[in-house]
Inverse folding.
């Protein structure tokens, strides 16, 4: 358990003096891609093996997941526009990054998401409408994370990356074979907690996969403001591998994530995956991308749409025909309808519930304030009853 | 019964929880071989191993954030923050994550993490080593905050904090680490979240906690020579506050002085004054007075004695209260 400390020679000053800087950290790493935007397959000697098990059925299932979560996302956006949700962070464009990575996980693995991992939630078997409780303002959580090994959304950027490492340190102590996955974005990669989580994960050689979706925009700020070097290159500074994968290629994302999980599971420590993708929609429904980015850029990425790419492959290889796509579309519409129904049925919680879970154990101030609140409310009830009585006379 | 210093009482308390529950572990900077900068964890790593007494990388947010993750996995981490002034890199994890997870998850998740922080001045140190930031944490719902003032409480409150299902911050009065006293290792006597009347009196109540309890007791002794009977309450718990014990005392004495090293503005003393005014206004013979730090960054060590509440400042407040 835990890392053996590096031998003293790793920090030997004489050796260091003899060494030369041989590479520029700003050099772009190769982009792992197994399926090109036109739907044709690419060879990759290192990662191709990790996608070899993906047969037609598996690829159709991945397409289905991506299509379902895209339709869900579209419905959630509509629900926000109609005043049924307070806010919504769309995942449009990031379906492959999320479905590709989520489907590589095993049941015992534990995910620590940000607030945009709706696709990963789907792969963990979470009923998607539960995610909307947070955005409807009826819960700050919405599900039991222990049922799906999918932690609650975390809105304070990168705080969850440390929780993922701590959880993995527990896994190590238990001698279990679970891996944790910390999701975060290019914007959050600047947060100190990402740095500290990578330091702790490396120091303990913990089974963690850092999954960074570089969607190019942190609200209005481009990735270039966050980093002068490719984000995946940062991993080498912590002493573990970093891989940049085409985040719109669901097959490549799946393969690279499987590789990283297997590596972490076998005790070789953390990996950073940078999924190179694009936020095709706004940061949230409160955002307006026309203020800060060019339409031409959006057009360019539309050509790289992750669903379109897999559809091209499925059609060109006769892995799926029109019937399949029609059936998926119908299923997606059904999901949208049930999502809408679920959201409309979500009622505001009782304010009193807020007193219940501030503490696990009895607390005199909570008891006192709850009592006061009840009496205050009861006063209104008496007043209303009094008025009704008065009107009746 | 055993006689020990506060520091060694904490060590003994930690040893007891490590021996009792394999899910407990201590995490912090320099706490392993060195035994911590105050030697509170001395010998524990040798006894329980490097996986139970963990020297972490030097990053406070990292310590707290990973402790929270460990707690989700069923562990009970006890984090040592080296000095009061160095807790702030972890402030985000403590206030936005640790304090809220139970509420956010509707009670499905708990994070029973314990945070030990040596606090307070009077040790002649450089800046960031003498602060009293307890009010900053007391303002956050979801946290419990306690502070022992003697070896017996140090021994038991450490164990009670670990046993608690809620996150608990223990502010340890670092200038009293070497204060010796009796520890009844058989019985705690009271729970960690209650106040204790440590000296009975009839004329004025002084509420103190942590490092100022011995100061308040000494002031009460001096007042006795002038014929004034002072009741001293050791608050022990800063969140929640045992207002029943404080109110009962004030109803008897009619006068209240609250003292802490932290600045009075926005502090615990103000909260106590407001609550006592609500509960015992008609028993009051004088306004509640506060004796505490000034509204300034903690002063330079060479002049810190002018900042810290001492016997004379308490007696001066006592005179004002009695003369009202």
């Amino acid at each position: 358990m835990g890392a053996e400390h590096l031998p003293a020679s790793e920090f030997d000053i004489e050796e260091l003096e003899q060494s030369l800087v041989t590479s520029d950290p700003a050099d772009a790493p190769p982009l792992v891609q197994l399926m090109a935007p036109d739907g044709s397959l690419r060879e990759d000697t290192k990662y191709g093996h990790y996608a070899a098990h993906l047969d037609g059925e598996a690829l159709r299932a991945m397409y289905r997941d991506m299509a379902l979560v895209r339709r869900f996302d579209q419905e959630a956006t509509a629900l926000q526009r109609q005043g049924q949700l307070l806010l919504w962070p769309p995942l449009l464009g990031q379906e492959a990054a999320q479905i590709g990575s989520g489907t590589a996980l095993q049941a015992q693995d534990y995910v620590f998401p940000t607030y945009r991992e709706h696709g990963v939630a789907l792969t963990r078997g979470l009923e998607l409408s539960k995610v909307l409780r947070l955005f409807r303002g009826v819960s700050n959580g919405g599900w039991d994370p222990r049922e799906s090994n999918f932690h609650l959304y975390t809105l304070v950027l990168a705080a969850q990356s440390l929780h993922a490492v701590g959880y993995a340190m527990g896994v190590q102590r238990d001698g279990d074979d679970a891996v944790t996955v910390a999701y975060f974005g290019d914007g959050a990669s600047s947060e100190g907690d990402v740095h500290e989580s990578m330091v702790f994960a490396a120091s303990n050689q913990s089974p963690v996969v850092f999954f960074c979706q570089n969607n190019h925009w942190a609200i209005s700020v481009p990735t270039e403001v966050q980093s002068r070097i490719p984000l995946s290159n940062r991993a080498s500074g912590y002493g573990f591998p970093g891989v940049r994968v085409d985040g719109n290629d669901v097959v490549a994302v799946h393969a690279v994530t499987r590789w990283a999980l297997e590596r972490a599971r076998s005790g070789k420590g953390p990996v950073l995956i940078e999924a190179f993708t694009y936020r095709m929609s706004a940061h949230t429904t409160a955002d307006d991308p026309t203020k800060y980015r060019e339409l031409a850029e959006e057009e360019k990425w539309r050509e790289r749409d992750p669903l379109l790419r897999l559809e091209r492959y499925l059609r060109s290889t006769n892995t799926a025909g029109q019937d399949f796509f029609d059936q998926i579309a119908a299923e997606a519409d059904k999901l949208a309808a049930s999502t809408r129904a679920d959201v409309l049925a979500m009622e505001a919680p009782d304010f009193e519930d807020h007193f219940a879970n501030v503490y696990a154990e009895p607390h005199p101030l909570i008891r006192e304030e709850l009592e006061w609140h009840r009496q205050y409310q009861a006063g209104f009830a008496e007043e209303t009853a009094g008025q009704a009585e008065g009107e009746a006379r | 019964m055993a006689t020990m210093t506060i520091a060694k009482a904490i060590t003994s308390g930690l040893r007891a929880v490590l021996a009792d529950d394999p899910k407990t572990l201590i995490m912090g900077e320099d706490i392993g071989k060195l035994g911590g900068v105050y030697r509170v964890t001395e010998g524990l790593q040798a006894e329980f191993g490097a996986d139970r007494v963990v020297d972490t990388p030097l990053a406070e947010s990292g310590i707290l954030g990973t402790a929270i993750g460990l707690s989700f996995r069923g562990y009970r981490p006890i984090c040592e923050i080296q000095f009061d002034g160095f807790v702030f890199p972890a402030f985000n994890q403590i206030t936005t994550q640790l304090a809220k997870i139970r509420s956010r998850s509707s009670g499905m998740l708990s994070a029973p993490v314990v945070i030990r922080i040596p606090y307070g001045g009077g040790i002649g140190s450089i800046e960031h080593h003498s602060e009293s930031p307890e009010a900053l944490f007391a303002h956050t719902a979801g946290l419990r905050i306690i502070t022992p003032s003697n070896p017996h409480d140090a021994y038991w409150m450490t164990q009670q904090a670990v046993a608690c299902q809620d996150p608990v911050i223990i502010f340890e009065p670092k200038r009293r680490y070497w204060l010796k006293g009796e520890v009844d290792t058989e019985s705690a006597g009271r729970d960690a979240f209650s106040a204790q009347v440590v000296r009975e009196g009839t004329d004025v109540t002084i509420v103190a906690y942590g490092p100022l309890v011995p100061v308040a007791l000494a002031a009460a002794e001096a007042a006795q020579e002038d014929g004034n009977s002072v009741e001293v309450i050791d608050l022990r718990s800063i969140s929640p506050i045992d207002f029943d014990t404080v109110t009962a005392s004030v109803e008897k004495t009619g006068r209240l002085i609250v003292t802490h090293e932290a600045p009075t503005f926005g502090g615990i003393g103000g909260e106590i004054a407001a609550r006592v005014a609500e509960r015992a206004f008609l028993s009051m013979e004088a306004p509640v007075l506060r004796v505490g730090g000034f509204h300034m960054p903690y002063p330079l060590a060479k002049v810190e004695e002018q900042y810290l509440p001492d016997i004379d400042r308490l007696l001066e407040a006592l005179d004002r209260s009695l003369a009202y």
